[in-house]
């Protein structure tokens, strides 16, 4: 089964502890810190659209992009009753981003960048973002740190809700720096029986300095890194690292 085909329907149930409101607050703090006037926002790899919905309700005009049709369908459904300007949804990959115009800011949340398979894909994504962020505009994204992905190797995790049960097993390959997640997803059917789906996800470990170099190559400046939802630099062994960068004029 392709990635996210089964997960899309249960993603929100399994990520109830993400703290989207807190993360939306943090992103707005980065908007303010950058001194960029932000109204139009690209939510790249928007998933089921939780951040898209929150920022729309806060008065921003959103373009939401995701490669998974299943995740995008869930995002569209979530946005049906929002107040404010309805988001525009586009089914695109990160490295093939193609907008109709520019945006004031782009965000890429919850380690979506780690899903890019290698340096070339990341470089292409930064180049496309540079093309569609207005001169002087802002890019904000976060990654699972290399340290975190290495620590996941060999562990087993359980996520359990009333009608959903997920077992996932990460394996980290040192040479390729790729963490593979094997996911068994059990969903309860109306007749009470459980249905099993199996998915495989991969995340690539990227170091801060190589991402910084690729951002500079793409034309971004004022590149800063932060700890998880903090306004200070990442600590040693930080699990999630935020980046902000300004699109050069």
Task: Break the fold down into its secondary structure elements and pairings.
Elements: H1 11-14, H2 20-34, E1 40-44, H3 50-57, E2 61-66, H4 69-78, E3 88-91, E4 103-108, H5 119-132, E5 133-144, H6 146-152, E6 157-160, E7 164-173, E8 178-188, E9 194-204, H7 208-218, E10 220-226, E11 240-247
Helix pairs in contact: 2-3, 5-7
Properties at a glance:
alpha/beta, 28% helix, single chain, 249 residues, four-stranded antiparallel β-sheet, seven-stranded mixed β-sheet
Q: What is the oligomeric state here?
A: single chain
- Measure the end-to-end span: 43 Å
Structural class: alpha/beta
Fraction of residues in β-strands:
25-35%
Q: Strand-and-helix sequence, N→C? A: HHEHEHEEHEHEEEEHEE
Enumerate the spans where pLDDT stays under 50 for 5 or more consecutive residues.
none
Mean pLDDT score, rounded?
A: 93
Strand arrangement in the largest pleated sheet: 3-2-1-4-5-11-10
Rg, alpha carbons: 18 Å
Q: How does the major sheet shape up?
A: 7 strands, mixed
Total of DSSP H or I helical runs spanning 4+ residues: 7
The gross shape turns out to be: globular
How many strands in all?
11
């Amino acid at each position: 089964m392709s990635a996210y085909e089964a997960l899309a329907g249960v993603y929100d149930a399994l990520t109830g502890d993400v703290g989207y409101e807190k993360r939306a607050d943090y992103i707005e703090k980065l908007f303010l810190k950058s001194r960029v006037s932000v109204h139009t926002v690209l939510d790249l790899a928007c998933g089921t659209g939780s951040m898209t919905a929150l920022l729309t309700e806060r008065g921003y005009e959103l373009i939401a992009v995701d490669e998974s049709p299943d995740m995008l369908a869930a995002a569209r459904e979530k946005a049906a009753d929002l107040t404010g300007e309805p988001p525009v949804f586009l089914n695109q990959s990160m490295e093939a981003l193609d907008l109709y115009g520019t945006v004031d800011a782009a965000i890429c949340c919850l380690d979506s960048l780690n899903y890019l398979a290698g340096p070339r894909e990341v470089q292409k994504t930064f180049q496309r973002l540079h093309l569609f962020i207005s001169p002087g505009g802002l890019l904000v994204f976060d990654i699972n740190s290399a340290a975190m992905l290495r620590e996941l190797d060999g562990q087993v995790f359980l996520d359990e809700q009333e009608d959903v049960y997920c077992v996932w097993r990460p394996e980290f390959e040192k040479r390729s720096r790729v963490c593979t997640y094997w996911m068994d997803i059990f969903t309860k059917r109306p007749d009470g029986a459980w249905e099993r789906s199996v998915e495989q996800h991969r995340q690539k470990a990227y170091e801060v300095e190589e991402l910084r170099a690729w951002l500079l190559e793409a034309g971004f400046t004022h590149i800063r890194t932060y700890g998880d939802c903090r306004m200070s630099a990442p600590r040693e062994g930080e699990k999630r690292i935020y980046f902000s960068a300004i699109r050069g004029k």
